[in-house]
Design goal:
With 83 residues, this protein is α/β, with parallel strands linked by helices. It has a single domain (2-64), classed as Pyruvoyl-Dependent Histidine Decarboxylase, Chain B (3-Layer(bba) Sandwich). It contains one helix and four strands. The chain has one helix at 15-26, and strands at residues 2-5, 32-35, 45-48, 61-64. It has a two-stranded parallel ribbon with strand order 1-3. It has a two-stranded parallel ribbon with strand order 2-4. The protein starts with a strand and ends in a 19-residue tail after the last strand.
């Protein structure tokens, strides 16, 4: 099984718009995200790097281990990660 690690950030007039921009920046916009725990199956191949699946399949399922943080104050940063 290939497991892709990607990342993105975004901003927008609303939290939802910013989150959508971050998903687009990560290359995984337009999917139905299905969150999973972070258990990695044996014999998995980890692929690190930006991907671009934005224009592939709209509305399809995408299983994800998702970490995010929202910051609403101007000129502040927010970080999150999966370890």
């Amino acid at each position: 099984m290939k497991i892709f690690i990607t990342w993105g950030s975004g901003d927008g007039p609303t939290e939802k718009a910013a989150f959508d921009a971050a998903l687009f920046n990560a290359g995984i916009a337009n999917y139905n995200l299905i969150p999973l725990s972070s258990v990695i199956p044996d014999n998995s191949e980890i692929c690190v790097g930006k991907i671009d699946w934005n224009q592939k399949q709209h509305g399809y399922k995408l299983y994800v281990v998702l970490s995010y943080r929202i910051e609403t104050r101007k000129d502040k940063e927010s970080w999150s990660g999966v370890g």
